[in-house]
Amino acid sequence: MTKRMTYANWDWERHYTTQGCCCVVGVDEVGRGAWAGPLVAVAYHFTAVASDILVGDSKQLPPNQRDKLFLQLQAFGSFGIGSASSAEIDALGVQQAQYQAYMRAISQLEIRPDMVLLDGRPWPNAPYPCHAIVGGDAIVASIAAASIMAKVYRDPLMKTTVHEQFPQYGFDEHVGYGTKKHQEAIATYGVTPIHRLSYKPLQQYQKRTD
Which domains does the chain have, with CATH numbers? Predict the structure, then answer.
Protein backbone atom coordinates (compact mmCIF):
# COMPACT_ATOMS: atom_id res chain seq x y z
CA MET A 1 0.00 0.00 0.00
CA THR A 2 1.34 3.43 -0.96
CA LYS A 3 1.97 5.72 1.98
CA ARG A 4 -0.43 8.64 1.87
CA MET A 5 1.21 12.05 1.66
CA THR A 6 0.51 14.33 4.60
CA TYR A 7 0.66 18.10 4.25
CA ALA A 8 1.80 20.74 6.67
CA ASN A 9 -0.39 23.41 8.25
CA TRP A 10 0.06 26.91 9.70
CA ASP A 11 -0.94 26.08 13.30
CA TRP A 12 2.43 26.92 14.85
CA GLU A 13 2.82 30.09 12.80
CA ARG A 14 -0.64 31.23 13.88
CA HIS A 15 0.12 30.36 17.50
CA TYR A 16 3.18 32.57 17.65
CA THR A 17 1.53 35.34 15.64
CA THR A 18 -1.23 35.53 18.25
CA GLN A 19 1.54 35.75 20.87
CA GLY A 20 2.77 38.94 19.23
CA CYS A 21 5.44 37.58 16.88
CA CYS A 22 5.50 39.52 13.62
CA CYS A 23 8.10 37.39 11.85
CA VAL A 24 7.89 33.62 12.34
CA VAL A 25 10.53 31.79 10.33
CA GLY A 26 10.91 28.11 9.51
CA VAL A 27 14.41 26.67 9.17
CA ASP A 28 15.52 23.29 7.88
CA GLU A 29 18.57 21.67 6.33
CA VAL A 30 19.38 19.20 3.60
CA GLY A 31 22.54 17.14 3.26
CA ARG A 32 23.35 16.42 6.89
CA GLY A 33 23.69 12.69 6.24
CA ALA A 34 25.57 13.01 2.95
CA TRP A 35 29.17 11.86 2.75
CA ALA A 36 30.18 14.71 0.46
CA GLY A 37 29.16 18.20 -0.51
CA PRO A 38 27.73 21.04 1.55
CA LEU A 39 25.04 20.99 4.18
CA VAL A 40 22.46 23.53 3.01
CA ALA A 41 20.01 25.35 5.27
CA VAL A 42 17.12 27.61 4.32
CA ALA A 43 15.22 30.09 6.47
CA TYR A 44 11.72 30.75 5.11
CA HIS A 45 9.13 33.36 6.11
CA PHE A 46 5.64 33.43 4.58
CA THR A 47 4.89 37.06 3.74
CA ALA A 48 1.61 36.45 1.93
CA VAL A 49 -1.43 34.23 2.35
CA ALA A 50 -0.58 30.89 0.77
CA SER A 51 -3.58 28.73 1.62
CA ASP A 52 -3.58 27.17 -1.85
CA ILE A 53 -0.02 25.84 -1.51
CA LEU A 54 0.29 22.31 -0.18
CA VAL A 55 3.73 21.83 1.32
CA GLY A 56 5.10 18.79 3.10
CA ASP A 57 8.27 16.82 3.80
CA SER A 58 10.54 17.41 0.80
CA LYS A 59 11.74 13.80 0.95
CA GLN A 60 8.22 12.55 0.21
CA LEU A 61 7.53 14.89 -2.70
CA PRO A 62 8.36 13.91 -6.29
CA PRO A 63 11.01 16.12 -7.92
CA ASN A 64 8.60 17.80 -10.36
CA GLN A 65 6.31 18.81 -7.50
CA ARG A 66 9.25 20.16 -5.48
CA ASP A 67 10.38 22.23 -8.45
CA LYS A 68 6.89 23.69 -8.90
CA LEU A 69 6.61 24.50 -5.20
CA PHE A 70 10.05 26.13 -5.25
CA LEU A 71 8.79 28.68 -7.78
CA GLN A 72 5.53 29.24 -5.91
CA LEU A 73 7.25 29.67 -2.57
CA GLN A 74 9.47 32.42 -3.97
CA ALA A 75 6.30 34.42 -4.66
CA PHE A 76 4.70 33.85 -1.25
CA GLY A 77 7.60 34.50 1.07
CA SER A 78 11.14 35.63 1.71
CA PHE A 79 14.00 33.24 2.27
CA GLY A 80 17.69 33.01 2.98
CA ILE A 81 20.14 30.26 2.05
CA GLY A 82 23.17 29.30 4.11
CA SER A 83 25.59 26.42 3.82
CA ALA A 84 28.42 24.69 5.64
CA SER A 85 31.23 23.09 3.67
CA SER A 86 32.64 19.63 4.19
CA ALA A 87 35.77 21.25 5.65
CA GLU A 88 33.66 23.10 8.23
CA ILE A 89 31.77 19.92 9.06
CA ASP A 90 35.06 18.08 9.64
CA ALA A 91 36.47 20.92 11.73
CA LEU A 92 33.41 21.77 13.83
CA GLY A 93 31.38 18.58 13.79
CA VAL A 94 28.19 18.29 11.80
CA GLN A 95 25.93 19.69 14.53
CA GLN A 96 27.88 22.92 15.04
CA ALA A 97 28.33 23.28 11.28
CA GLN A 98 24.58 22.92 10.92
CA TYR A 99 24.03 25.79 13.36
CA GLN A 100 26.46 27.90 11.34
CA ALA A 101 24.42 27.19 8.22
CA TYR A 102 21.26 28.14 10.11
CA MET A 103 22.74 31.50 11.13
CA ARG A 104 23.93 32.22 7.60
CA ALA A 105 20.49 31.47 6.19
CA ILE A 106 18.66 33.60 8.77
CA SER A 107 21.10 36.48 8.26
CA GLN A 108 20.02 36.65 4.61
CA LEU A 109 16.47 37.60 5.60
CA GLU A 110 15.47 41.25 5.39
CA ILE A 111 14.11 41.32 8.96
CA ARG A 112 15.16 39.66 12.19
CA PRO A 113 12.82 36.80 13.20
CA ASP A 114 10.76 36.98 16.38
CA MET A 115 10.53 33.18 16.43
CA VAL A 116 12.42 30.45 14.60
CA LEU A 117 10.71 27.09 14.10
CA LEU A 118 13.12 24.19 13.65
CA ASP A 119 12.77 20.59 12.58
CA GLY A 120 14.08 18.08 15.10
CA ARG A 121 16.39 18.83 17.98
CA PRO A 122 16.68 22.14 19.89
CA TRP A 123 19.33 24.74 19.02
CA PRO A 124 21.31 25.43 22.23
CA ASN A 125 22.38 29.04 22.81
CA ALA A 126 20.66 30.17 19.63
CA PRO A 127 20.81 33.92 18.95
CA TYR A 128 17.07 33.89 18.25
CA PRO A 129 13.99 32.61 20.10
CA CYS A 130 13.51 29.05 18.86
CA HIS A 131 11.03 26.21 19.05
CA ALA A 132 12.14 22.77 17.85
CA ILE A 133 9.42 20.44 16.59
CA VAL A 134 10.06 16.75 15.91
CA GLY A 135 8.89 15.95 12.40
CA GLY A 136 8.40 19.66 11.76
CA ASP A 137 9.31 19.36 8.08
CA ALA A 138 6.11 17.35 7.57
CA ILE A 139 3.66 19.28 9.75
CA VAL A 140 4.81 22.93 10.01
CA ALA A 141 4.29 24.95 6.83
CA SER A 142 7.29 27.27 7.08
CA ILE A 143 9.65 24.41 8.01
CA ALA A 144 8.30 22.31 5.13
CA ALA A 145 8.83 25.27 2.81
CA ALA A 146 12.42 25.63 4.02
CA SER A 147 12.99 21.91 3.49
CA ILE A 148 11.71 22.09 -0.09
CA MET A 149 13.76 25.19 -0.90
CA ALA A 150 16.91 23.62 0.53
CA LYS A 151 16.53 20.38 -1.42
CA VAL A 152 15.74 22.10 -4.70
CA TYR A 153 18.82 24.27 -4.18
CA ARG A 154 21.24 21.52 -3.12
CA ASP A 155 20.31 18.66 -5.44
CA PRO A 156 20.97 20.54 -8.72
CA LEU A 157 24.22 21.87 -7.28
CA MET A 158 25.40 18.32 -6.66
CA LYS A 159 24.03 16.99 -9.95
CA THR A 160 25.62 19.67 -12.13
CA THR A 161 28.48 21.70 -10.65
CA VAL A 162 29.87 18.99 -8.37
CA HIS A 163 29.24 16.17 -10.85
CA GLU A 164 31.06 18.08 -13.59
CA GLN A 165 34.02 18.55 -11.27
CA PHE A 166 34.15 14.89 -10.20
CA PRO A 167 32.25 12.94 -12.90
CA GLN A 168 33.57 9.51 -11.91
CA TYR A 169 31.77 9.58 -8.53
CA GLY A 170 28.17 9.64 -9.77
CA PHE A 171 27.08 12.72 -7.84
CA ASP A 172 24.36 13.24 -10.45
CA GLU A 173 22.66 10.15 -9.02
CA HIS A 174 23.33 10.02 -5.27
CA VAL A 175 24.03 13.76 -4.60
CA GLY A 176 26.69 12.83 -2.06
CA TYR A 177 24.90 10.17 0.00
CA GLY A 178 26.57 6.87 0.81
CA THR A 179 25.03 4.63 -1.82
CA LYS A 180 26.68 1.46 -3.08
CA LYS A 181 27.78 3.24 -6.25
CA HIS A 182 29.32 6.05 -4.22
CA GLN A 183 31.15 3.57 -1.98
CA GLU A 184 32.52 1.75 -5.03
CA ALA A 185 33.73 5.03 -6.54
CA ILE A 186 35.53 5.97 -3.33
CA ALA A 187 37.15 2.52 -3.18
CA THR A 188 38.37 2.98 -6.76
CA TYR A 189 39.33 6.66 -6.88
CA GLY A 190 39.76 7.64 -3.24
CA VAL A 191 38.23 10.71 -1.64
CA THR A 192 37.93 14.27 -2.93
CA PRO A 193 38.29 17.61 -1.11
CA ILE A 194 34.50 17.71 -0.69
CA HIS A 195 34.25 14.40 1.17
CA ARG A 196 33.57 14.51 4.92
CA LEU A 197 36.48 12.61 6.40
CA SER A 198 35.15 12.95 9.94
CA TYR A 199 32.25 10.65 9.04
CA LYS A 200 32.92 7.13 10.28
CA PRO A 201 32.80 5.36 6.87
CA LEU A 202 35.47 7.74 5.56
CA GLN A 203 37.74 8.08 8.59
CA GLN A 204 40.14 5.50 7.17
CA TYR A 205 41.08 8.05 4.49
CA GLN A 206 42.11 10.81 6.90
CA LYS A 207 45.76 9.76 7.24
CA ARG A 208 46.11 9.41 3.49
CA THR A 209 45.19 13.05 2.94
CA ASP A 210 47.18 14.57 5.84
Answer: 11-154 (3.30.420.10)
End-to-end CA separation in angstroms for the chain:
50
Q: What is the pLDDT of residues 145-190, one digit of tens each?
A: 999 999 999 999 999 999 999 999 999 999 999 999 999 999 999 9
pLDDT per position as a tens digit, 97-120: 999 999 999 999 999 999 999 999
Query: What pTM does this model have?
Result: 0.92
191-196 long-range contacts (CB < 8 A, ≥24 apart) are 192/36, 192/166, 193/86, 193/87, 194/36, 194/37, 194/85, 194/86, 194/162, 194/166, 195/35, 195/36, 195/86, 196/34, 196/35, 196/36, 196/86, 196/89, 196/90, 196/94
